[in-house]
Specification:
Chain B: In the C-terminal section; belongs to the phosphoglycerate mutase family. The structure holds two protein chains of two kinds. Chain A is 42% helix and 15% strand. By secondary structure, chain A is of the alpha/beta class. The two termini of chain B are 21 Å apart. By secondary structure, chain B is of the alpha/beta class. Classes of the chains: A alpha/beta, B alpha/beta. Chains A and B meet through strand 1, strand 7, helix 8, helix 10 and helix 11 of A and strand 9, helix 7, strand 12 and helix 13 of B.
Amino acid sequence: MDLEYVRRRRCDSAASVPQFCNSPTVIVMVGLPARGKTYISKKLTRYLNWIGVPTKVFNVGQYRRDAVKTYKNFEFFKPDNEDAMRIRKACASAALKDVAAYFSKEHGQVAVFDATNTTRERRAIINSFAKEKGYKVFFVESICDDPEIITENIKQVKFGSPDYIDRDIEEAMQDFIQRIECYKASYTSIDDELDRKLSYIKIFDVGSRYLVNRVQDHIQSRIVYYLMNIHVTPRSIYLSRHGESELNLLGCIGGDSALSPRGLKYAGALASFIRGQKIKDLKVWTSHMRRTIQTAEVLGVQYEQWKALNEIDAGVCEELTYEEIQENFPDEFAMRDQDKYRYRYPKGESYEDLVHRLEPVIMELERQENVLVICHQAVMRCLLAYFLDKSGDELPYLRCPLHTVLKLTPVAYGCKVESFFLNIEAVNTHREKPKNVNVNRKPEEALQTAPDHI
Amino acid sequence: MEDKSPNPRELTQNPLKKIWMPNKNGLPEKHISHRRVCMTNCPTLIVTVGLPARGKTYISKKLTRYLNWIGVPTREFNVGQYRREFMKIYKSFEFFRPDNEEGLKIRRQCASAALNDVRQYLTEEGGQVAVFDATNTTRERRGTIIQFAEQNGFKVFFVESVCEDPEVIQENIVQVKLGSPDYTNCNTEEAVEDFMKRIKCYENSYETLDEVSDRELSYIKIIDVGQRYLVNRVLDHIQSRIVYYLMNIHITPRSIYLCRHGESELNVKGRIGGDSGLTTRGKEFAKKLSQFIQTQNIQDLKVWTSQMKRTIQTAEALDVPYEQWKVLNEIDAGVCEELMYEEIQENYPLEFALRDQDKYRYRYPKGESYEDLVQRLEPVIMELERQENVLVICHQAVMRCLLAYFLDKTAEELPYLKCPLHAVLKLTPVAYGCKVESISLNVEAVNTHREKPEVGTNTNNNNNNTFYLKAPFRTPKVTLQKTRNKIQ
């Protein structure tokens, strides 16, 4: 069994990215300060990791902060400041070295090199480095001259930066603007003629226009698609499970049961809550399962059903309680506890499968603005993991209790989470990882963390 | 959101698609929500732009095929076709001269006629996307189209193809123009010469989409057959999907090989689904497949399988690296998994009948429908478009879906396409379509194909059926249309 499992994992293309993956890819950001490079870097990295492509950001500014402990002012960035230039070049080199180590020693597949990279010279150095090592290079340039957007960027992310932590806001704004000026004189955008052999995407004005050149492979194509779907318009995403269901009460997993009386009450409470939020143009999505649709019905608004939002398929374990699973499939139960993310129910799915099934949902969530997603425990864990950048190990244990709405609002480089328990009691369906995950454990040890039920 | 006390509507599960829908008086209520996701609110008009022989019709047809396959009713309107019907005989390039008043008048009329048909398709026939395939090389012509769209509440998305590579243009002409009805009576040289002159007629008045003056328009400019793309103002989901698709297709010659796994243990027992291994004959097929592939001398062949034992066993015999895709798994027959058709008839006679009524949309209880399968296979199609030579070892229902995409089969035809065991289909894109070669590897196998039975030969019409028969399932198109008319 073990050998089979290993072999399956080796050949396993979780169907999102061809596994007999070619060379690692270096994504190189290009652009003046405050053009969203770090925002894009972090978001892209989060997305790629979520779909199963090991990715890491290398932010040269971070290296600089580590090297130069205290930031004085914009003078550091003046083009004639030779000492600083030397330090900055050294930081870039150090970062590139770490990129190489990430690929060769840590099995990374994509590295996002986050720096201004505004000169042809600097970009040529990176290109040579990559060619020499056999890495593919994909440039992402962000071009924006809208002063409002730039000011907003500075407010959102620069004031909170370690560089400006003890500064007064006016001062910080002035200094940052001077910093941008330092780069402007030597800024050469990627040239459509001279650089026509490079692979790149140019993002204009936060996505109103894109120029895409020479997409080489699958991962670059996915990256382009993702970048073309994200936006920065303020909005909130509400995640909730269906109301408590009949099978929930019995402690059974899966199935397609109706809401319990408390579940119906929750649906009503959800409707009031949503009304109270006064959300503009809210889209409501459910799965194809009765319990989410029943919940949405009470809202009294149009909703869309997505089969992709259906709960994880527990295969032969559908509609069983944990006690029954332990009794009938003790080995399966133990293996699941050993690696809950990758474990696939016989004739069913794994969390890993779920993530791939949910990818189009995430893509559409990125495109949309205000959305309420009424889904299921495992599904909600996957979606939450995407927004909160949780690893495959954490994901299956995220807490997504019944009758609780999570409101996610993008802010700065991340996501603000507000949790609203709507005061309708429900059973607990969360099962922590037990201490003993060995196949030869006693039933009590396996069921130690199983939640109570009727 | 208006203040409504929670009075949830009753839900019934549509017996065919197993979709939960609100009902009124025991009948399903019309509701848009049973579609996967609202692709479009208003219909979309895609407008091609470009000189002759830039691939506009190729793109139009391919895009139309893709959109229809994923369930978005789409139709292309080729103005050249209207012109041919009107003019009956094509004399020479002189028709296209910019100073040919008579010619211009006719061409304008044809464009209007086509737009009229577009309007009818999108407003009365349930179409969601129309592809207006013509040169549309002047700002004036595009302005007219934009006005037309605005009057009718259609969104407009331009697809411009720009190419100056003489080799590519020459190849285009050879591939698709020589065979055109316009040139049936010319020899090759004459035809090429005339066509080059035809292109010249457009060149002087050609105004490409301009980055500055057209910045409010939504468009994609495809430069040099996909080396570069310029994308402006993508407005919605469907435009985003169109852009993604256009950015993934290519025209490098290649072949796609489709076949099923070798005959399996459950196949010979007459059972559907499951995850069984190959029979002796199945293994024989795998060996023959390996030999066949070697003789084909395919450059850089990629091999894909599902995650089911029978396809993997088949691939193993090839002794080359292969990739397993879970989404290539056979259709999930839910409660009917591993049953024989006789057993399904005995235990689920109603289900069996429903399936024969609409095999494409029918979803097995706790299982899938062909419609679900298409949705799940979309990333495979996208990756097949990106790739070059690929061998896909899959399953009957899966292969039918993939084949339907390549051969532009409708939802009605798809579930009955013949995909027998132990035969390989070699698909090679040519001109506007796909050449299909069927190669049987001469290893006996059971037949797993079930034709659509004659109407009225089956079913236990017990009382339970009456409800379902009285409330015919309304197709989403009709429902949506009625809603749309009300809003306008």
